[in-house]
Amino acid sequence: MPFKALNLNPRLVQSTREIGYTEPTPIQAQAIPLILAGRDIIATAQTGTGKTAAFLLPILHHLMQKPPNATHALVITPTRELARQIEAVCRDLARHTKLRVALLVGGVSMMPQERAVRAGVELLVATPGRLLDHMQFQGQRFNGLSIVVLDEADMMLDMGFLPDLKRILAKLPGRKQTLMFSATMPPVIGRLATEILKKPETIEIGKRSAPAVGITQAAFPVPEHLKTPLLRHLLRYTPMPSVLVFTRTKQTAKRLAKSIESDGFAVTELHSNLSQGQRTRAMDGFRRGDFQIMVATNIASRGLDVSHITHVISHDVPHVPEDYVHRIGRTGRAQAEGDAFVLVSPAEEKSLSQIERHIGERLPRVTLPDFDYRVPSGTKMEARQGSPGKAGKAGKPKRQRGQNR
Ligand code: AMP
What we know:
Blueprint: H1 10-19, H2 26-36, E1 41-45, H3 51-64, E2 73-76, H4 80-93, E3 101-104, H5 111-119, E4 123-126, H6 128-138, E5 147-150, H7 153-158, H8 162-171, E6 177-182, H9 187-196, E7 201-205, E8 215-221, H10 227-237, E9 243-246, H11 250-261, E10 267-270, H12 276-288, E11 293-296, E12 311-314, H13 321-328, E13 338-344, H14 349-359, H15 382-386
Parallel strand pairs: 1-6, 1-7, 2-4, 2-5, 3-4, 5-6, 8-13, 9-11, 9-12, 10-11, 12-13
Bound molecules: adenosine monophosphate.
């Protein structure tokens, strides 16, 4: 079925064509007609399924019929990076319209955002905390909203945003269309949905716990103290054009980024200890391909869409199986293929078994033949198998993308 068959404004159809969307993805084919018909929806879709355009296209269509210079639509999403990503997709899809979009996110000055709200920018994309700040000062500006999207609802919950969300929803006008998207559907989200949605249509794309097709997974058993050397070994001897490495803590992310960089790779890091400027530079640089590797905490595990990621490596096993599915969903985007590796210490085998039960498959265990697994803990072994000897200086990466062999 072509986009034309969905009765969207021809200018939007033209944008989809130019962007290279040949036909609607399943979530788009199901959600767009329902949203155009004014229904509330609750959608569960695996990441990478095209859900951003699934809600943006009908919203833009709707906005084109509304008087300009008034805010009619609001998208609430948990992280600044996701907000920026949605804004970028929106600008792309709205390229043949006069519609405007603005971001209301933390970490940057409120003044330009206030001006945008005052000017009645037609669509706002916001994170919960900053949105509440704006609502406090300019509450009446949100009275004209007719569509609200709660994106990554389960992640907002994980990040402790439920009280903020409830306060936001209480301040919004009662008569509006609400669209709720969530990669997973824990019971508390189901309850929130029944509280705020009116006779919602439910859309479920794919098996909830399943990783996207096209992702090859493997587990690398390794003693805890050898994880970083094994990771560096893997990076050095396996062609990996674009890699996202996940760590549990910010401290590990920082330390790991430093040691990978000392091997001469172009590396950046993303975690909540960075300023907003640093986070934006990291994300933009990784997206552009300036950095071959990004080391991140779970802040990057959901929804981020960087199409060129070929490898996702978990430096630790996530405690929550769904976090694993989110992490590996950063590769294999939109039908592409990708590899997802997880480093597993003996103490983490139990968490890995839980993940395997959750996804319904056992991951193959991989042992590297040329890596010395017997080095005892405490040995100064980074120089032996964790570092190439003639490493480039930190901060001056010598190898560029795809040249790490
Ligand atoms: P999302 O799930 O919204 O993060 O989208 C995942 C990826 O799918 C993005 O790179 C989109 O550009 C891409 N995408 C969205 N809709 C389509 C479509 N109809 N055809 C091809 N790619 C799409």
